[in-house]
Every structure is written in C-alpha cells, then in structure tokens.
Amino acid sequence: MTTDADAAVDAVATPHPVPVRLTAALDPRLSRWLWLVKWLLALPHYVVLLFLRAAFLVLSAVALFAILITGRYPRPIFDFTTGVLRWSWRVAYYAYGALGTDRHRPFTLADVPDYPAHWDVTCPDRLSRGLVLVKWWLLAVPHYLILGFLLSGVRVPWASGGLIGTLVLFAGIALLFTGRYPRGLFDLVIGLNRWVLRVAAYATLLTDVYPPFRLDQGGQEPEAQS
C-alpha cells in the first residue's frame, strides 16, 4: 500500500508534465515612453492586489488544513488563489515584470482570452496529505534560493529589482531609443517569470508536481513550441 510519505517522495523524484502554464505575446506596437509612467498607471491594480493578497494568505491557510484532512484543495479557494496569481501576472506583464504590452489591464480574477498574457494551473483531483506539510517551506527551498536572486529587493512581486527588474530596465531603454523590444531579451524575461510562477503554484499548494530546474524561454510553454 502506498503511503502519503511515499507519494511525497514520488512527487518530487518522478518527472511529470508541468501543470502550470504561462503564455505571453509581445505587443508589436509598444510605446517608446509609456513604460516610464506605468508605475502610476498600474497603481489602482497594486491597491486592489494588496487586499486580494491579504485574503489570499488567509485562504491558503484554510486550504492547507482542508488538504491535510480531505486530500483535496477546495475548488472555490483554488479558483480564487489561481485568479490572484493570474491577475498579478497580467499586471506584471504590463508593468515592470515584462513591459510586454501597453493594453489596459482588466480588473478580474478570470482569464481574459484576448489579453496577451495568460496563466493557469490544472486543478488536481487529489493532493498528498503528507506533502502539504513540507513542500512550501522545505522542498521548495532550492527554488527560493534561486528566486532570491531573481527577485531580490522586490516588495511587490515582479515589480522591480533583481535580475528580472534589470533585464526589464534594459528592455525599456531599448524601447526608448529604438522603439523595439529585443526579442531575445523578451524570451528570457518570460522564461524567468515562468519559473517564478511555477514555484508560486507549488509553494501555494496548487499542485504536487515539483517545479523543474529549467529555464523555458519564450512566450509559449515547451509542449506548444515547434
């Protein structure tokens, strides 16, 4: 008989398809100068997300106990948690996590099909009761060390600082002087954000599939690439 402890080991050691999907399409008509004031234009979203993240933390604790008792992530909480991360990614994509679009950011937890940035995670049928006690503070530590470098000095996720913030600054300077976002730089920035959100999904208990130590660059997930 397989125990929860065995399942926890298998979830880390056995390769699985990554259930977390991040996609992004670079806007071909980016403004040369708008990125200089996006900190102001995105301010309403930062205010709303401040309150959403407070609820996010409380409900994540509720989900932890629900998983521990039932082995399932309550679907309403799962949808809310996923929605907050999705909203955060859209704002980051517009602002200083990528500068990938100048389009208005919708105020919604739901996916917006015609928006150029998307994030989603497959809701699992069941989750390991044993794994829920260790993955967010112990098993994810190697990734935290990497993300500590990628996001060092960040108060609001994906806003500034670290390697991602530096690369996005270079992209903004390129836009200012050339009117173009270097494609290779865009692919790298998206790959780094993809890594961040894979770890976020794991640490917030949305999946038992351990995030790969792999930088998948570009706007499409690997399985969608030719």
Automatic annotation (TrEMBL):
Keywords: Membrane, Transmembrane, Transmembrane helix
Spans through the membrane: 43-69, 136-152, 158-177
Keyword flag Transmembrane helix: yes
Pfam family, one: DUF4389
Record-given protein name: DUF4389 domain-containing protein
